[in-house]
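Entry 14. Ran structure prediction on the chain below.
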Amino acid sequence: YLPHVLHSGKGVFGRFSVLFTVSIVWLYAYILTISGAYKNVKLKTQAHCRVDRSGLIGGAPWISVPYPFQWGAPTFDAGECFAMMMTSFIAIVESTGAFIAASRYASATMIPPSIVSRGIGWQGHRYLA
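Output, structure tokens:
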């Protein structure tokens, strides 16, 4: 309902509606927690509703702050580098061949180099010329 009230930001509220909803609910739970609304209720309700006792962040091992090199130091393998260069070359040849084959199949005129250079891998070619 927020886009109808503010009359702007419809794209942002539409894309991030779940994040905004979770943030609003957590803010509401935080306000209820610091105001003392959960002091005289059952322990199960406190564990589920209070933001200081829920243990959601501490109990989830997948929520953590990444730190540099946590999986080890970076490595370089020349074989993998050459394999990626060959894969890029193959992509260049295949996309060029696909363009030429599509133009011949459609009985069109030959493709100019400015169109062929739009293929996969040819993007750096126009900067070199």
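The helical segments are 2-6, 10-15, 17-35, 43-49, 56-59, 78-105, 113-116, 125-128. Will compare against last week's run tomorrow.
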